[in-house]
Amino acid sequence: MSDRQRAIIGHSIRDVIRILENEPVSGDFIPEITVVQVMNRVSIAHLSIERAIKFLIDRSGGPLVKTHDLGSQFQELVLHDPVSAQFLRETFEAAVRHYRYNPNTAKMKHLKTLQGYLEAVGSDNAFQDIRYWELNQSMDDLLLRQMFLSIHMELLHGLGEILRAIDRRPMGTVANRVERAVQHAMWPTAVMAYGPGTAKEESIHSYIEWRRGFNTSCDALAEAVQKGFDIGDDFMADLTCNAYKALLETADLAVSYFASTLDVLSSQPRDVIPCVKWLGPEKEQRGVVETPGGTPLGFIDRGPDGLWYITPLQGGLVAVSAKARSQTDARCYLATLLTSPSMVTVDGGGRSLRIVREGRIFYKENYDETDRRFGGEDNGDVWTHKIEFWDRNHGIDVNANVRVEVRCEELTSMVDIVEGRVTEVAEHELYLSGSEWTDIEQGSQN
User: Fold this and answer.
1) Cβ contacts of 420 within 8 Å, gap of 6 or more
2) What is the pLDDT of residues 195-211, one digit of tens each?
3) In a 10 Å sphere around its CB, with 0-12 CB exposed, 13-18 middle and 19+ buried, how is residue 350 labelled?
4) What are phi and psi of 46, to 5 degrees?
5) Per residue in 278-288, pLDDT tens?
6) Max CA-CA distance within the chain?
7) Cα–Cα distance measured from residue 78 to residue 92, given in angstroms and rounded to the nearest whole number
């Protein structure tokens, strides 16, 4: 095989990688539309992988067989080009580690080996199912749960490395590529110039010394993100923050994924642990997190990487706002985000109760005539408020005189207060006719 033919195959792989990077899958409210995007991309990735493997087999004197079956083609590659086959194995194993897939779980046993993965999702029949999935549109297809576009992408990167390194050792797998990208982002040459004796020179020297404390650039950036970029002076903070933002937006899926995992939540307070109601046929994969009174706080979804992706309900469904390592941390994050401890005084006696809120809104007020419980009339400074407690057993009755105090999150010296008479109680909710204001906590002036 000539160098010209090898260059054409290499260009073909790079072209497919660019197509997939420039047109990433975007989630849609209709799941079938998301699946269509995945299938379209996997089909061209499969075909590109197939062409490259067949090229390597043919170059090594093996047979060209008219089949789309990647498993049998990989076996031929093992026989005729074991060095390339071994690097492709290393590429696959590094990808499984990078994306945190766990081959020991029941649904991912096919990720134990490259041969097992190709047999599960790369057979001739699977290729045809992928190409024509729209005609059947079965969301229950096992192939959907076994196939990972990220793995196909890394196999393309690995084959590209093999074709570039015919006379040398490949430059490495995904870990090496991500490290190079992070190193480049953290050392932008355009902003690193300085004059002798300047404050910038001192900042850069401090930055270099800080970086020397880590084995890799990835480790250094991870610590900077976890510390909120509080690692030195403003120059160091801006440098690492800008690197992080750039990596999040990079087209390389593996690089942007790495950056996206750096802000995983630390262990959350266990003051209260909400309930979870599991949704869908799969056990403990997607659930709605609720207060004991049944008020939904948000959704948690377990990703294939084992992380829990959290979507709060704050006046409507919003984008994923955080990621947690455990289900409990995900649930507790929502409780911390959407509930607050309060001091409740009832007819002179005080106790601590947790209230449920919407974003920064502690008390819903001035309900209109569409709600049967409220007249919605503005009577001077007297309004009708709805207060939702975490538990049903708050012990507050109709006609009680109630004062609720909640400390503001942004200004801890400030306290939001609502005070008035209870007009109705409905389990964990109560309705209070009174006034609301903000005050300075006693003693905070000092």
Assistant:
1) 382, 385, 401, 402, 432, 433, 434, 435
2) 898 999 999 999 999 99
3) exposed
4) -60, -45
5) 998 788 899 99
6) 91
7) 15
